[in-house]
Backbone:
């Protein structure tokens, strides 16, 4: 019996930054390399063929996604990006920005037909602004929550879901052990939750970060709230190998 073709995962982690084109000084990320290697190993155990790339410039990041248009894929395409960022952009290791809409355009049905029907799943670890989330008190038996004004919907290609480490306008936290967001993703993928449908799995990550993570350093007490946008048309189970 022939073995099913493996799904594909692309992980890009930028830890060492140079250049001076950004308005802010982009520092070195300690712990990100080890975290990325853990994610690579975990996805491999879940039947993914993983490409792990370190310290790519903005142009090289675009080129990596362009290569997906000429690759055979399994049932899913997963991409994890860990870097500095701002609203709508990710920085390469040369401190040059890559617009997320540019990445999504590269993977659109018109430019990348091989991925047209394959669910495309993004986990993006980066800041989306400079605000600090102080969190709110939660009443578990309260009524319906008020709208949060979330409006940062991106022009994602069909069959795509994108999960961000934080809400629009806010910072994402990182320490010597890794990021709050990707560490929560690791815990879920290594636990029984990896069998869940993707939208339920992402909601579980939201809960993990919102209730178990807060800054204990300079910005003590600050929180982080991941969020995701999706245009998937059905439930998918990408990690239930």
Residues:
């Amino acid at each position: 019996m022939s073995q099913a073709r493996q799904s594909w995962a692309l992980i890009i982690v930028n830890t060492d930054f140079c250049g001076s084109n950004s308005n802010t000084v982009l520092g070195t990320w300690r712990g990100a390399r080890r975290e990325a290697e853990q994610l690579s190993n975990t996805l491999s155990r879940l039947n993914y063929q993983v490409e792990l790339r370190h310290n790519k410039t903005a142009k090289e990041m675009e080129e990596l996604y362009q290569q997906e248009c000429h690759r055979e894929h399994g049932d899913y395409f997963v991409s994890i990006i860990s870097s500095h960022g701002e609203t709508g952009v990710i920085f390469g290791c040369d401190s040059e920005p890559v617009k997320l809409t540019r990445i999504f355009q590269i993977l659109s049905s018109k430019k990348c037909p091989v991925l047209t029907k394959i669910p495309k799943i993004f986990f993006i670890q980066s800041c989306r602004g400079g605000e600090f989330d102080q969190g709110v008190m939660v009443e578990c038996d309260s009524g319906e929550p008020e709208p949060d004004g979330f409006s940062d919907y991106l022009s994602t290609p069909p069959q795509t879901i994108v999960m961000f480490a934080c809400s629009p306008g806010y910072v994402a936290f990182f320490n010597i052990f890794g990021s709050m967001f990707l560490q929560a993703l690791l815990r879920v993928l290594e636990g029984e939750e990896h069998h869940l449908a993707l939208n339920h799995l992402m909601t579980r990550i939201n809960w993990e970060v919102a209730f178990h993570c807060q800054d204990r350093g300079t910005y003590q007490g600050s929180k982080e709230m991941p969020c995701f946008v999706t245009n998937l048309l059905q439930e998918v189970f990408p990690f239930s190998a």
